[in-house]
Fold:
Amino acid sequence: MTDTKTTKHRLRSQDWFDNRDHVDMAAIYLERFMNYGITPEELRSGKPVIGIAQSGSDLTPCNRHHVDLARRVRDGIRDAGGIPIEFPTHPIFENCKRPTAALDRNLAYLGLVEILYGYPLDGVVLTTGCDKTTPSALMAASTVDIPAIVLSGGPMLDGWHDGDLVGSGTVIWRSRRKLAAGAIDEEEFLQAAMDSAPSIGHCNTMGTASTMNALAEALGMSLTGCAAIPAAYRERGQIAYRTGRRAVELVLEDIRPSHILTRQAFLNAIRVNSAIGGSTNAQPHLMAMAKHAGVALEPDDWQRYGYDIPLLADVQPAGRFLGERFHRAGGVPAIMRELLEAGKLDGSCPTVTGRTMAQNLEGRAASDREVIRSYDAPLKERAGFLVLKGNLFDFAIMKTSVISEEFRQRYLSEPGREGIFEGRAAVFDGSEDYHARINDPALGIDERTILVIRGAGPLGWPGSAEVVNMQPPDHLLRRGVTSLPTIGDGRQSGTADSPSILNASPESAAGGGLAWLRTGDIIRIDLEHGRCDLMVAQEEIERRKADGIPAVPADATPWQRLYRQTVTQLSDGAVIDGAADFRRIAETPPRH
Ligand code: FES
Ligand code: MG
Structure:
């Protein structure tokens, strides 16, 4: 049964299918859709045409179950009186795409913009999951500004190995250290990794995938509670159906991303990111989404609004549990409810439900206080990102929720100099150089050394790579030193538990201060004042500039060249320079 609804405003799809001034063109637009059962009569009846942006495929296994979920989305769209049209998006598989999936985010964005703009779509369901699939989809939805709703795919079930919870990514970083220290062999390493992936879904830790889907919900772009439902749960199919239904209503009500993605919504997302112990990749992605939404978000907003927020979610890598427990404890709505009651959330923000965020959160208190803490009794106080600057870079972030007590004691607790650390730099040009030399005794790495990697930013890698969470040399690991301070112009995996200084902008390849650093230089980190400086005289730095910027690999594909010609720095979201000038482009129909 279909309850056909109509709307007061003329749908943009009617400009294709029901255009009386261009009957010849309408005929051409209409005829081929009959091949899969959509009749010209139906297409001309004024029913909303809803795209399903399909991000799942064999090349994006984290999202692959969207291929099945889309059937439920279609049912929802049909039952609400809409016409579903499913189409593929450019695949982005975090773990497999070389030289990095980050290179593909802007490409997927461009592709989706062209599809949403150039085809007869009135609204879109954005299927998301693996890290960059979420920001690329939301960036495109903002640029085009047709009604859009996020359907995340959900995390995998909890993984277990040897009686312990093992989470995506985090198990790799932890097993790597055990392998280097000789505590496990390669066989066990592989088995622990396999055990961390027990079902369909995206990473089950609070890595970049879980983070970005949580933030999509925090922004108001998905149904309440959507982000945390595990991929294999019955509820996942149910919310897919409801998301399809709601997409049709969004078109009828003309609720568009530009109504929802306000500065207040982005500040809410920054605060939620701190409370969930979210990925450091949220910084460039949220910034990119804000740019395309036309929202003025400053790099410093991460510290201004996010740093004081406590850690509430006891989820790996900052905590202990994984996606299933987080969902059962109440998921993102329970976190947001804590923030709302503490006066740290703007509850008036509109959302895709058609209600305000505060209305969505009614009755959504946490049900398991072991996993989701109350605001007054958090896991950690002040758990957001610190923003650092100095003569090495204008901007970098540090995720404070993963600073262990042991690390704090070792590096940041010298009496009278709390939060200050000075160490000798060991500098690596890219990860090949790191792997080749980290165990080289000539570098003299000890527990006072700061590991630095450069050539890992958007221009340098290219794409910006998750390589800054470098582990110490084997001789230190064997002595129990599991992390050294690290700095880099690349990123680190959202599943990593190292307190690195990341996303340094401008990067070395753009002539940032890291380019002039040499092994043996002293670096001074002052967390209290948000500084990170190279303790070398300015004349000496000037002299080194004559040596030129450290070399980076040549472009290997046409896109790499275009990407490098257009990309901005991580502090600005590594977006395509100038693309943010294009906003709400669907308001002007494309020519025939
Ligand atoms: Fe795809 Fe983590 S690798 S979600
Ligand atoms: Mg990653």
Q: What stands out?
A: The chain has a mean pLDDT of 95. Residues 234-253 form the longest helix (20 residues).
